[in-house]
Amino acid sequence: MPLVTVSPKFQVVIPKEVRESMGIVSGQKIQMLSYRNRIELIPIRPMKKLKGLLKGIDTDVKREDDRL
Description:
Largest sheet: 2 strands, antiparallel
Oligomer: single chain
């Protein structure tokens, strides 16, 4: 697991192997949130890149007889 250091300006550098594996590029927006004593970084993807993400997903839902 890569280790990073917080700079005096509270900045961190995302390690190269993490950037490449997540497809993070310079200038990209990343959402940051705090969850149970940890920090999570979530890359924001443009909507155009999400097109077709759910292609082939099973949308059949078993319903009770009294439901339409």
